[in-house]
Amino acid sequence: MSEKKAYPLRINADVMTAVQRWADDELRSLNAQIEYVLRDALRKAGRLPKPGNTDSTPEEGES
């Protein structure tokens, strides 16, 4: 399992409410939903390393 880091997040109240509702619908915690959304966006943008790759940056030519 990868290391988790704490980060204080300032967020618009309306966005927070919408994400909390989404998390409730998906039976996730608010924190898990935020991480899910971020990971999905990073994956779609080609910014996450491929599974099994120990490098924390995408391969050359990916993006």
Structure in words:
This protein is an all-alpha fold. The chain has a domain at 13-45. The chain has two helices and no strands. The protein has helices spanning 13-25, 30-44. The longest helix has 15 residues, at 30-44. This is Arc family DNA binding domain-containing protein. Residues 43-63 are annotated as: Disordered. One of its GO terms (biological process) is regulation of DNA-templated transcription.
Brief overview, please?
The chain has 63 residues and is mainly alpha-helical. The protein is built from two helices and no strands.
What is the structural class? mainly alpha
Number of helices: 2
> Which parts are unreliable, with pLDDT below 50 for 5 consecutive residues or more?
none
Rg over CA atoms, rounded to whole Å, is 14 Å
Mean pLDDT: 87
Distance between the termini: 26 Å
Residues in β-strands, percent = under 5%
**What general outline do the C-alpha atoms trace?**
elongated
Largest sheet: none
Helical proportion, percent range? 40-55%
Q: Give helix and strand order, one letter per element, not per position.
A: HH
> What is the total tally of β strands?
0
Protein name: Arc family DNA binding domain-containing protein
InterPro entries: Arc_rbn_hlx_hlx (IPR013321), Ribbon_hlx_hlx (IPR010985)
